[in-house]
Amino acid sequence: MQNVKQEEDVIRLHSRVKVKEKNSDKVIEMILVAPEEADIRQRRVSVATPAGAALMGFREGEEVMWNVPSGKKTFQILEVINPE
């Protein structure tokens, strides 16, 4: 099987992501994890949540939108760090 090189700035499982809420100065940092590894106190967000699912496959610099309790919000992806 061929080894597929993953792009460094694409969000995937175990990515550490920093996003900024558009129209606000609010910055959120999180690590995307499998549902059984989720722990909001450690900012470990499940890929099955609206935020986690919305971010998968996007890359640094792009904008993404997802539903929050107050409605849909747009976020800019500031930084993506993937494990080696």
Task: Report on the architecture of this protein.
The protein is mostly beta strands. It has a single domain, classed as Roll (Chitinase A, domain 3). It has one helix at residues 50-55, and strands spanning 16-21, 27-33, 44-46, 63-68, 71-81. Strands 3-2-1-5-4 form a 5-stranded mixed sheet. A hairpin with a 5-residue loop joins β1 and β2. The longest helix has 6 residues, at 50-55. The radius of gyration is 13 Å and the shape is globular.
Uncertain runs are none
Helical/strand content category: mainly beta
Fourth-tier CATH superfamily name: Transcription elongation factor, GreA/GreB, C-terminal domain
End-to-end separation = 20 Å
Question: How many distinct folded domains?
Answer: 1
Query: Number of DSSP helices?
Result: 1
Average residue-wise pLDDT: 91
* Count of DSSP strands: 5
Computed CA radius of gyration, to the nearest angstrom: 13 Å
**CATH architecture field:** Roll
Largest sheet, described in full?
5 strands, mixed
Q: What is the percent of helical residues?
A: under 10%
Give the SSE order as H and E letters: EEEHEE
| DSSP strand content | 35-45%
In the CATH scheme, the class would be Alpha Beta
Strand order in the largest sheet: 3-2-1-5-4
Name the shape in a single word: globular
CATH fold name: Chitinase A, domain 3
Determine the oligomeric state from the structure: single chain
